[in-house]
Each structure stands twice: as C-alpha cells, then as structure tokens.
Predict the structure.
Amino acid sequence: MNRGLRLLGLLVLMALFGTAVYFGLGHFTGARALRKTALTPDKTHATVDLPGTILVVQNGTIYRLQGGTFKAMTAGSWTQPSITPDGQHLIVVKQELNYSDLYELSLNGQIERQLTDNASGTVQYNHWSFHPMVSAAGTLFYDYDQKYFLGSNQVDLWVYAMPLGAQQSRAQPWTTPNFSTGGDIQPLPLRSGGIIYSNYFGDQTTGYVWSQLWYTAAAGDAGHTLTPSTQNCASPALNPAQTMLAMVCLSKTGEQAQIVVAPLQGNQLGPQTVVATGMVNSPTWSPDGKSLLYLQGTGSDGYFQLYYQQVMAAAPTPTPSPSSSPRHDRSTPTPTPAPTPALIVHPSPPRQLTTDDNFQATSAPIWY
Amino acid sequence: MRVPKRSVPRKRRASRKPAPLGPVLLILVGFVLAGLGGTGAYFMPVLTAFVSATGQNTVHHPRPGASGTPSQVRPTASSVPTPPPNASTGGSEAFTLLLVGSDNDPKFDGSTPLTQSMILVRVEPQKHQVIMLSIPRDLWVSIPGYGYGKIDEAYELGGSEGAEATIEQDFGVQVDQYIWIGLQGLVGVVNTVGGVDVIPTNPVLDDNYPNDLNATNAQQAYGYQRLAVMPGPQYMNGVQSLDWVRSRHDDIVGDFGRSFRQQQLLVALREKSSQLSAADLPGLVKAFGSEVQTSFNVAQLVQLLPVADQIKNSNIDRITLVGNYTWNSTVGSEDVVMPNWDLILPLVHTYFPASS
C-alpha cells in the first residue's frame, strides 16, 4: 500500500514537473519580457521630485504629477494638452475615430466648454484639430484639416487661428500647407504676434518628406525658415521667456531623433546644441527655463518614459582684472541688486523620471 | 565484556543497505521524460503550424532576357524547380528573400490576393548587412504566363511561385526564400514582440482608410475610416503599426512613401526580434495563425534569430525606386509606374546577385 502511494506521489510530481516546464518555457522567454504591461502612472512614482505641476498623457488619460506622485485627472480620449497664458485653463484635444475636437478644461480636468465641433456622420465630412496653443493676446492657434473638396483623397493640416471661445466659423487659416505632405502643424504663438510652426514638404527625387521650422508674422504672411531644409526639425517648444527654442530633429532615414536647443534671437535661431539623442520626442521647458522634460522610448518594452534634463546653466562670472579695479576708492558703495546671471546652454546628463509607464510620445508634457 | 572501540561504526556501516540504483535511475528518467513532455507540448504548436506554413518550395525560374528587357514567358517545363534551399539560408550563408504582404480582408475571395507590399531583401550574415529594395506595387512588368500587368497581380495570378518568377525574370535576381504575410499576421507579429518604437517622419493622414481589419464579411470590409498619425518618435502596437504602413492615400511621394514606412517598420521589428529566442517561436506561430506563409523551415528560422541580433541598423541599406528609376504613367484606365530598367537593373545587381 505504502509503496503504491509512493509511486503515485512520484508520478504526480513528474506530471507537475512536466507542467512546470511547459509554463516555465512560456513565462521566461524573451517575447514575454518584451510584452511587459505598462502600469498606469498612478501606480508609479517619479524618481525625482520636481517642483511645480506636470501633466502627461497615457492611453487617453491626463495625469498630474506633483511631489513625485501621479494622479489621474480626466479619463477618455484626451491628448496634447496645453495651458493658457494666464495659467488658469487647459486646452486639450479629444480624439475619436474619425475626428478630434478642442476643449477648454479647468486645471482639475473639468470640461468648461467645447471649442470646436468637427464631428459628422459622414466619414469624409469630419475634421481634425490638433496641437492647440493660446497666445498672450487670447488667440487660439491649432492644426485643422481644411477640405480641398469633398471626395478628394487630399487631406492636410493647416495652421488655423480664432479668438479663444469664439464661434468656429471665425477661424481663419494662417498658413497654406504643401499638398499631400501632412501639412503645417504645431503652431507656437510668440509675444510679437507671429508664430513658429512645423512645415512638411516632399522631395520627389529622394522620396523623403522633410520637416522644417518656419516663422510667420501674420496670417497669410510668407514668413521665413528657421532651420535648414535637410535638418528635418519639428515639435518646437519655447521657454517661458521665449528666448530659447527646443525642437526635435530626425535623421534622414527616420531611425534616430535628437533634441536640439537654440537661442531665439529676434525671429532667427542662433547656434544649435544637441542635448539628447535617441527615441526622443515632445520637449517641454521648465517654468524657470533651465531644464527640459521630454519623452523617450527606452528599455526592451519600448514604452516611452519621462526624462528630465538640465540644459541651461549660469554663465561663469567674469573675474574683474586687478588693473581695472580702483585702488583708493573711498566713496561709500551704493548697494545695487545683484544682476541675474546670464544663462548659457550647458546640458547635464539626462535623468529618467519613470520606468514602468507608457506615455503618449506625441503629446508633449505641460510643466507649470 | 570489553567492546572494541571501532567495532560500532563498522557494525553501523555494515547495516546500511546500498541505495538501489535501478529505482533512482527510473525516477530520474521519469522526470526527464516529464520535462521533455512539457517541452514537447510547448513546442507542439510550432511543429504543427510549421508543417503547413513553412518549408514550402521555392522555384527558381531561369531569366529569359539578360538584357534587362522584360519578356513574356509562360511557365514551362523548362522552369527549373529546385529543392528547398538548405544551403542558401542557414545561419551564415547569404540569401535573397522576397517579402510580400497582402490585403487579405474579406473583400478578396481568392486564396492569393493582390500584394500591397513587395520587398526584396538581401541578407549577408557574414558581413552583418541587409539590403532592402521596395518594389512599387503598380510597377508595370511582364508577369510570366500572363503578359504585362502590375506587379501586385503576380502573386494573385500565380501565388508565391508567380511572384518569385516575376522577380527573377524581370529583375534578374534569384529568390531563395519567400515570406507572405496578411493583415492580421502583421498585427500579430508586432504584438508578439511587444510593439515597436518607430519615427514617422511626417503626419500620415488618410480620409479613405479601409475599416476592414475585423470585418467578417465582404460587406463590412468595404467600410472606411479616417486616419491621423502624428509625426515623431513613438511606440506603436500591432494595429497602429499596420495603419501606419498600410495607409496609401495622399502621400506626396505616392506609394514610395508607404514603401519607406514599411522599411522603417521592418528595421524596428528587427530591433525587437533580436531579443527573441527559439523558445519564443510558439508564441509567434500562434500570432501568425494562417496569416504567414514561408519557404523557411523551422531549423532555418531558429538559425536566423541570432543573425537578427548581429545586424545593426546602420548596416541596413534601404532602397526605393524613386526619381529617375520610375515614372508615373497610365495604361488604359490604370495608373501605373513604369520602370526604367536601364537604371534599375544595374542598381539591383549592385546589391543582389544576378540569377544564373
């Protein structure tokens, strides 16, 4: 009897071992590691506690990052939030299958009003609106697919503008895109009243579609380019003082990206500095204009995580030469406020803020 | 009575019975068999699926016109069938692969639909190099046995053999292996490797994108939707990847734009597949379903996995036949792409060995 039981136990153990091998093979393979499920941000923490508030988007939900902790603000199909110049409202894209609309939200994520109405029951009658930004003067700039004619396969994005909160019928195109390239996108309003935007154009000889940053002073103005045609730059982001520009420039074959910063001098860009390389996208400046937040594809899963990088540092103070200093100055020194040290581009190594999320890389974070 | 000191241990040793070797061995063998059984059960889907999906014959067709002028040929007995090429693939020998993709949604009732994508790939394992040549789907060529037509019809008319024969005849390149992949197959492959990181270089907008991926009948498959893919580095899952590389309307460089995107996706897939091992094959096979057919056999695929890891992106050359290599034209009411063979053939033979 005992012997029979022992034999049965052994057989059960063998069967269990075989089953364990079966499931073990399925569990510890590379593909499974690659398919790691991303966590929702509210189950993760940032590795660095940055000052202020940061908004990021994952899977249609806007998350607020404060004190190193994420909290879901509003769920749905939200993307590409921006903040109004007074810092009191969010302008956000709500993207559905065939259309997208702009909404004004409170800082807590409550819908305050719908700004565009792009939905239609007929597929081709729908419209897209993306990349909303409000200027200091209260003009809402965004991308919009103006129809060439119904039934056409041609669809491109144009930069449109209208007073914030006005009827959409008052919206006017600011740019005319190159046909069948994707168009003009990502308007960035300047205090001068002009905008910087990304323009796409095709090169039939090489088969490549390039992107280039443009400046235009007014609606319909021809404007001028800010970056060379072959540098393939887009996704501009300005620091709060509007003196430094960050952008994403792609390699010709679209396998690598760089975040490049350059001073904005008048309506021209100054010398460029590469601050990050890899699968980097959607840079955003910190409120003090010294650092960048951006999203980068990293790890074997390929999900995009939040990165932080200090890119500006105080310029070294010039040491006064002994010969120029007065030797016998007995006058009482007048107290003067210490001058704000000038900032120069001085990138520090980037720091990865998250490891287990899957942020939408084409939706730039907000930092206020 | 005095007992000698060492007698006790001796007595104990003498009382211990030697462990019976037979039962121990039997138990060990039992566990090994159980482990093998588990391994066998795990790999069973690979074995069964590969029987139907892999190891299919590749037939080499002699190239009739060496001058580069395509000619009309019907398949004849003179076509030289060769056995599945063991030597021409493997882990170290260079080979040429024809990669074709089809819209195999319910709109098409045939078993071999049109090919929407045709990419000739030269893999040089020893040089750690890959060359990809995208062939425009509307390229006007001679299809062996059927006369002139768009090259996307070659697979529809003659299956994989017809597609290979067309390439071999018109491009003068010997095709060693082929892979055909359907819509759901591509989705499954990308999802199985956990998605890909890609860099769309421009917004991809399409107002007439087919909404047919989950259609179960032809009527549903005629639906369409709008598509908007934003530019810049981003993560894509299977469906998003398919949408991005399948969209074909409103591209300034026409079908070449789509070819460019397809090549980008292949490079991204290579990056991910370099982290796979043989143990991942069951998952891949499950993802493929009946949506992948290939002439590779299991052993060749296993040998190729480490090759993918050795080839870096910088060693992948990507070619599209834009510019002077082709021009747009019409034949009857059809929009076609006409080949400039005088330029195409020298270019192709720079990278792909000419067929004998």
